[in-house]
Amino acid sequence: MTETVNPQPVPVRKPVRKHRAGRLPGRQDWSSWPHYQAAAAGFRGYWYPVCFSSQVGEKPRAVTLLGERLFVIRDQGKVFGMKDRCPHRGVPLSYGSKQFPGTVSCVYHGWTFDLATGDLKAAITDGPQSPICGKVTQPTYDVEERLGMVWVYVGDGEKPHPIDGQLPEELVGNPAVVGARIQARTGNWRFACENGYDEGHAKYLHRTALWRLFKPMPVWNKTKIIKRGRWIYRVQQEQFWEADFPGLGRWSGLAWYKARPPEGTANIGNTASHRKVNPTIADQGFPGFASVSMPGVLRIVYPTFIHYEFYVPVDAGNHLYVGVLADFKKGLRTLPFYAKYLGAVRWLFHGQFSGQDKWMVEVTDAPPEKLYRPDDSLLQWRKLAEDTTEERLERLRAQGVEPADATAD
Description:
Layout: H1 34-38, E1 46-52, E2 61-65, E3 68-75, E4 78-83, E5 103-105, E6 111-114, E7 120-123, E8 140-146, E9 149-154, E10 177-186, H2 189-197, H3 201-204, E11 220-228, E12 231-240, E13 242-245, E14 249-252, H4 279-284, E15 290-293, E16 297-301, E17 306-315, E18 318-327, H5 335-363, H6 376-398
Antiparallel strand pairs: 1-9, 2-3, 3-4, 4-8, 5-6, 6-7, 8-9, 10-18, 11-12, 12-15, 13-14, 15-16, 16-17, 17-18
């Protein structure tokens, strides 16, 4: 008996679609700027704002700065800083309290440290004559208060430079009223600083921000970077409000409901404005409306106010965004500022507008990266950071101080 087997159909192979090869970024790291690449947790040798002055009282407030855990505390009106780890068993001193004037006591065994010197003054649970006293000194930090905020210096044991020499010059000696916001954010501080000084993103990303709703936005600029003192400036040479892209069509930063763009190219503000420039701002002679300085301070100049952003490294994956808006007025002329800031600017500018930057910093993943022409601003910032850091290291070594140079690891 013959059994016929029905042949199985031969499967038809579909052609395999090969993945189309792309032209991926060529810069795989930041080794061209070794100090900058190593500064994931920030640059040492600078003052950093860590919180509002009103947030520091007689109870320790824990802070992480440049990867270092410390705390700040107020005693008789002055704020002190100290390493947040008891040398006895490693318990955070910020859990402790002030049992005696001018000191802080560890919550665990009552080890008590002088706030000014860090010296161990008492070990409460070992009695008044404890032999451990005089043998332990807790690391301390230099602390100052400016602009309604507490600033901490993180160095390598050297005497800190005066804080007023690091603040934007126009904020020292000129009366001003300020509105500020401090927000803990995810993302490396370098991404935040590069975003702030970035040439291209504001024209596109922020075109949807309510702060810019009625303002025309350039499509693109011709820009140069110049250095003046410790700052580098983005100088707008030409602004283009509309552009035809070959094979695609026209892109415009104009609309019927927006203000008309200026006829010339200005460097006070990056959008149209016909407002009179504040005399204090005009006196500074800023060559460009956007500038940046070490250790990550952005300055954006508008006709009637200046906005500053301080990017404070917490650790490699987190930073503090400190936004400060300064209006250079005094006396009764400051009253309208508070109403405007609290009623609109705080949630429009320091809120939704800045929130777009926050989003981008959170999702940035670089290097690798492929930069384009407007990114000259980023390259010049990295060069500034690299050169300034090299100068500092050479200066410290000449003084006999061996800095914690991460590139030597």
